[in-house]
Amino acid sequence: MSSWIILDGPRHTSTCCLADERIEAESKLLEYVEARRVAKEDYPDLFMYFVTTTEPGFPIKIGISETPKFRLRGLQTGLPFDVKMLGVFKIPDTIFERRVHRKFKHLKLRGEWFRNAPEILDFLALMLENEKAPPMPTKASAEHIVIPAPLGA
């Protein structure tokens, strides 16, 4: 018997299946993932923000918020240094955040905190340059975002 665990943020959903039920299980997994997608119209003003502090080399937080200014204030409460917004840009959905986190997983420290690395700053600069265009992978940004292939592909 095989076991599938779906991790969606802090929630876990488990499902078990026999080897001959694998195709159906993969299909159910794809249905679940598609059902969890957040449509662009559900979040007309969803922003990705990059925050650090004035302390040199401090990690970078990559998160999303409908109100980045208020989020910045909330972060300041829990940090011993002055927070500094590196950049904010509009994103189409919450899936985009997951893709960015996956792109920089080798720099991840904990949660949404990443090492302060030039490649994150370069990515942010590229996204801010293209802010007027939808921040989805384009010819110019394809090297920065890896879109996972569907299961079974």
Walk me through this protein's architecture.
- With 153 residues, the chain is of the alpha+beta class.
- It has two domains: 2-36; 42-129, GIY-YIG endonuclease (3-Layer(aba) Sandwich).
- It has helices at 22-36, 68-78, 94-103, 118-129, and strands at 2-8, 11-17, 47-53, 60-65, 83-90, 108-110, 113-114.
- The chain is elongated, with a radius of gyration of 18 Å.
- Mean pLDDT is 75; it is low at 133-153.
SSE pattern = EEHEEHEHEEH
Q: What spatial form do the alpha-carbon principal axes imply?
A: elongated
Radius of gyration: 18 Å
Terminal CA distance reads 23 Å
Content-based structural category? alpha+beta
Low-confidence stretches: 133-153
Q: What is the domain tally?
A: 2
The pLDDT mean sits at: 75
Helical fraction equals 25-40%
Draw up the topology in text.
Blueprint: E1 2-8, E2 11-17, H1 22-36, E3 47-53, E4 60-65, H2 68-78, E5 83-90, H3 94-103, E6 108-110, E7 113-114, H4 118-129
Antiparallel strand pairs: 1-2, 3-4, 3-5, 4-7, 6-7
Brief characterization of the structure:
With 153 residues, the protein is of the alpha+beta class.
